[in-house]
Amino acid sequence: MEVMSRHHAPDSSLCLLLLLLFLLLGVPMAASTEQSPARLNKAQEDIMRDILSSVGSTKNWNTSSNPCQWSGVHCSSVASSAFVTRLSLPGCGLSNATILASICYLDTLRSLNLSRNFFTDLPSQLSPCPMKSELQVLDLSSNMLSGQLRNFSGFHKLEVLDLSSNSLNGNISIQLSDLPKLRSLNLSSNGFEGPIPTSIATSLEDLVLSGNNFSGHIPMGLFRYGNLTLLDLCRNNLRGDVPDGFLSFPKLRILVLSENNLTGKIPRSLLNVTTLFRFGGNQNNFVGSIPQGITRNIRMLDLSYNMLNGDIPSDLLSPDTSETIDLTANRLEGFIPGNVSRSLHSIRLGRNLLGGSIPESIGNSINLVNLLLDGNKLVGYIPWQLSRCKKLALIDLSSNQVQGNIPIGLGNLEQLVALKLQKNNLSGDIPSSFSDMSALEILNLSHNSFTGELPFTNSTQSLKLCYLGLHGNKLNGVIPSSISLLQSLITIDLGNNELTGIIPTNIGTFLKLERLDLSKNYLSGQVPSSVANLERLMCLFLSDNNLSGPLPELPKWVMVNVTGNPGIILDTEENRTSGSMKGSQDDFRSAIWVAAASFVLGFSLSFYWAGPGEKLMPRLETLHCDD
Ligand SMILES: *[C@@H]1O[C@H](CO)[C@@H](O)[C@H](O)[C@H]1NC(C)=O
Ligand SMILES: *[C@@H]1O[C@H](CO)[C@@H](O)[C@H](O)[C@H]1NC(C)=O
Ligand SMILES: *[C@@H]1O[C@H](CO)[C@@H](O)[C@H](O)[C@H]1NC(C)=O
Ligand SMILES: *[C@@H]1O[C@H](CO)[C@@H](O)[C@H](O)[C@H]1NC(C)=O
Ligand SMILES: *[C@@H]1O[C@H](CO)[C@@H](O)[C@H](O)[C@H]1NC(C)=O
Ligand SMILES: *[C@@H]1O[C@H](CO)[C@@H](O)[C@H](O)[C@H]1NC(C)=O
Ligand SMILES: *[C@@H]1O[C@H](CO)[C@@H](O)[C@H](O)[C@H]1NC(C)=O
Ligand SMILES: *[C@@H]1O[C@H](CO)[C@@H](O)[C@H](O)[C@H]1NC(C)=O
Ligand SMILES: *[C@@H]1O[C@H](CO)[C@@H](O)[C@H](O)[C@H]1NC(C)=O
Ligand SMILES: *[C@@H]1O[C@H](CO)[C@@H](O)[C@H](O)[C@H]1NC(C)=O
Ligand SMILES: *[C@@H]1O[C@H](CO)[C@@H](O)[C@H](O)[C@H]1NC(C)=O
Ligand SMILES: *[C@@H]1O[C@H](CO)[C@@H](O)[C@H](O)[C@H]1NC(C)=O
C-alpha cells in the first residue's frame, strides 16, 4: 500500500476522507473550541496560511476557518491563545521542500507526520528550524529522501523518528547521537551501510534497521541499549557469531535477525530474557543444536533455513504459550516430540531429516492452522487425531514415507485449504468426503498407491479446488462428467493411473484450466472437440492411452503430447511441438503466479504474524508443464 501510493498520484481520496472524518467528528470538537474560541497568534496563523498554499488543493481546507479546525491540524490552547502542536499530512502529494521551511517555524509543534509524500531532500531546510526544540515525533517514512543522512542535531525532545522506506544511504556514525530522548528509530528499507550504529541514546526502545546493507558483526556496543524492547536487524549483510549478551536486554520482546549471514550457535542468553516472545533467526547460517527450553518464553520462533542439527528438544512443542514454530530446512534428526501444546497454531518442521511417526498428541493442538512436515523421513500412519484440529488450513506431509489410509475425518476439516500428501506410501480409497471440502484449493495426493475411483460426485462442494494432483496412483473407474463442476480448477493431473472410459465431453467447460494431464491411463474414444474451448490451456498431456481420432485444433502455444495413442491422427503435431513454446513460457508463469498469488492472499491473514521482519508466506508449489 505504502509503496504503491508513493509511486502514484497523491492520495487525495484519503485526504478527502480525512476531511470528511474531521467534519463529522469535528462538530463536537468545534463546539468545544467555540467555548474558548482560541486563535493562533499572528505568526502561526501566517505560517499555517503559507502551508495552506502548498497543501490546500489536496486538503480542501476551509480558508476562512481557524486553521486549528483543519483536518490533520491539532492545537492546544492556554488562556485565549492557541498554538499548533500536531501536524499530520501523510499522503498529500507534497514535494516542495519550501513547505518544510515554513513548518520549521512552528516552534510549538510536538508531532509532525509527513509520511508518504514526495520529499527528496531535508537537511538543508532544517538548519534554521525553531521547531526542533519541541518536536517529539517526526515521521518522514515513505518519501524519496536520498543521499547520506546529515546531522540530526538539535532535536532535544525527539522520541520517535521514522525515516523508513526512503533511499537514504551511507554509514550512520554520529548523525543520530544527539537525540537524547530517542525511544523509537525506524530506518527500515533504505540503503544504509557500514556497521550497526552504536552511538544512539541509550533511551532507545525500538530499533528497526531491517532492509538495508548494514554489514559486519553484531557489535558488542549494541548491548548498551538496555531499554530495547524491539530489535529488528532483518535483511542486512550481517555476519559472524551473535554475541551471547542478551541478558543486557531485560525488556526485549521482539528480536529479528532473519535474512543475514550470521553463524555460530543460537545464543543461550536468549533463554533468560523472560520478556522475549518472538525470535526470528531464519535464513542465516546458524549451526549446532536448538537449546532445550527455547520456547519457554519465546512464543513465536522462526529458525528456518539454517544449518541446525541434532534432535529437536523434547520440550520444544509443549509450552502452553507456544504459538508458531518454524524449523523448516535445517538438518534436524530424531523424532518429532510428543506432548504438543494446544496453543500452537503453526508447526513447520519440513525439509529436515526427521524420522519416526507423527505424534498422535498433535490432535490436542485444536488451534493448529498450519502443519508442515514435508520432506522428512517420517513413517507410520497419519494419526486420525489430526481431524480434531478443526482450524487446520494447511497440511503438508509430502515427500515422506507415511503409509496406510487417509483418515476419513480429514475430509471433515471445513477450513482446510491445502492438503499435500504427495510422494508417500499411502494407499486405500480417497475418502468421498473430500468431494465436500468447501475451502479446499489444493489437493495433491500424487505418487502414492491410492486405489478406487475418483472421489468427485455431482454434488461436490469443493468448488474452490484449483489444483487436483492424483498422478501416479492406481485409481480406476471413469472420469465422471461431474468433474466439470469443479470450475476453479487450473490443474488436473490424473496421469499414470488406471482410469478407463472416455474423456468427458464437457471437459471444455473449464474457464481457468491450464494444465490437463491424463497420460498413462486406459482412456479410449476421441479427444472431445470441446478441448479447443479451453482458453487458458497451456499443457495437454494425453500420451500412452487408447485414444483415437483427430486432435481438435489448438493454439500453437499449447504444449501437447499424444504419443503412445496408436489411433490418434497426428496432423499438426510436428508444427505444434516445434512451435513457440519458449515465447509463451513467461505468459505461462505469470498466469501461474496470479493463481498462486490468490492462494497466498487467501492464506495471508492466518499466516501473517503481526510485526516487523515478517516473511512467512506459504511456500508455493510452482507449477510447470514438465513437473
Ligand atoms: C468555512 O469556515 C467559515 C468560518 O468558520 C464558515 O462560516 C463557512 O461556512 C465555512 N465554509 C465551508 C464551505 O465549510
Ligand atoms: C516551491 O514553492 C515555492 C514557494 O511556494 C515556489 O516559489 C517554488 O517555485 C516551488 N518550487 C517548485 C519546484 O515547485
Ligand atoms: C503518520 O501517518 C500515517 C498514515 O496515516 C500513519 O500510518 C502513521 O502511523 C503516522 N505516524 C505516526 C508516527 O503516528
Ligand atoms: C553533528 O552534531 C554534533 C553534535 O551537535 C557535532 O558535534 C558534530 O560536529 C556535527 N557533525 C557534523 C558533521 O556536522
Ligand atoms: C518501520 O518501518 C517499516 C517500513 O515503513 C514499517 O513496516 C514498520 O511497521 C515500522 N516499524 C516500526 C516499529 O515503526
Ligand atoms: C562506512 O564504514 C565502513 C566500516 O567502518 C568504512 O570502511 C567506510 O569507509 C565508511 N564509509 C563512509 C562513507 O563513511
Ligand atoms: C530506561 O527505562 C526506564 C523505565 O522506563 C527509565 O527510567 C530509564 O531512564 C530508561 N533508561 C534510559 C537510559 O533512558
Ligand atoms: C555468508 O558467509 C559465508 C562464509 O563466511 C560466505 O561464503 C557466503 O558467501 C556468505 N553469503 C552471503 C549471502 O553473503
Ligand atoms: C538463565 O536461566 C537458567 C534457567 O532458568 C538459570 O539456571 C540460569 O542461572 C540463568 N542465567 C543467568 C545468567 O541468569
Ligand atoms: C448425478 O448425475 C447423474 C447423471 O446425470 C444422475 O443420474 C444422478 O441422479 C445424479 N446424482 C445426484 C446425487 O445428483
Ligand atoms: C511425451 O510423453 C512420452 C510418454 O510420457 C514421453 O516419453 C515423451 O518424452 C513426451 N514427449 C515430449 C515431447 O515431451
Ligand atoms: C506445418 O508447417 C509448415 C510450414 O509452416 C506448413 O507448410 C504445413 O502446412 C504445416 N502442416 C500442417 C499439417 O499444418
From TrEMBL:
Molecular function via GO: ATP binding; protein serine/threonine kinase activity
Classification via SUPFAM superfamilies: L domain-like
Entry's EC annotation: 2.7.11.1
Keywords, in A-Z order: ATP-binding, Kinase, Leucine-rich repeat, Membrane, Nucleotide-binding, Repeat, Serine/threonine-protein kinase, Signal, Transferase, Transmembrane, Transmembrane helix
Keyword Repeat: yes
SMART domains: LRR_TYP (SM00369)
Catalysis performed (reactions): L-threonyl-[protein] + ATP = O-phospho-L-threonyl-[protein] + ADP + H(+); L-seryl-[protein] + ATP = O-phospho-L-seryl-[protein] + ADP + H(+)
Membrane-spanning residues: 591-610
Top EC category: transferase
Pfam families linked to this entry: LRR_1, LRR_8, LRRNT_2
Signal sequence residues: 1-32
Keyword Nucleotide-binding appears in the UniProt entry: yes
Domain Leucine-rich repeat-containing N-terminal plant-type: from-to ranges: 54-76
Name the record gives this protein: non-specific serine/threonine protein kinase
Organism (species): Oryza meridionalis
